[in-house]
Amino acid sequence: MGSTRQNKVARLLQKELSNIFLNLTREYFQGKMLSVTVVRITQDFSEAKVYLSIFPDNNAEEILEQINLKNKLIRHKLSQTIKKQLRRTPDLQFYIDDSLEYAKKIEKLLDDKN
Questions:
Q1: For residues 29 and 35, what is the distance between their CA atoms, to the nearest angstrom?
Q2: Was domain 4-113 assigned CATH 3.30.56.70?
């Protein structure tokens, strides 16, 4: 859980990163759909873990590598949009959100038992 301030900042980052990825998808990842599912930020607001859902997920690891290579660009674009709300832009760490795959796996296991 986090403080109210952490939750507000996380929602702000999620919204702004979603807009950034919408534009980046048009330029670099045509034919893919990227969405920011969760943002978790540390108590001191210095680091943010960003969980991404990538569809289709056949080469999600490769796309994650490309995103990590563009980390500075993404952070710069983010800092331009949130400079009025936050004093310092947090360092971004990107991860693939595999919660949908996990849910499908559990559902399949439950269906196989019946």
A1: 12
A2: no
